[in-house]
Amino acid sequence: MAMVMMLAGLPLITLIIAAVHAWKAGSAIVFAIVTGILFIPAIFLYFNESAWIYAPAYAVIALIGGVVGKSLRSGRGSE
User: pTM of the entire structure?
Assistant: First the structure.
């Protein structure tokens, strides 16, 4: 179950939160960097050293969500 959360649940939540943040605030890059950095303490608290690869992966997922949210924001402003 933990592997399902790590591979599907948490990335989906990250994507949604990043999209909503970019939609409301308009910033995508800073949120993605902060997401990657803030995942590092979680590695030591909840996971093991093999989870280091997920820090940049979550940053990339947050960046994708930010780009989606930013595009939704620009689409909203043109109406």
Answer: 0.80
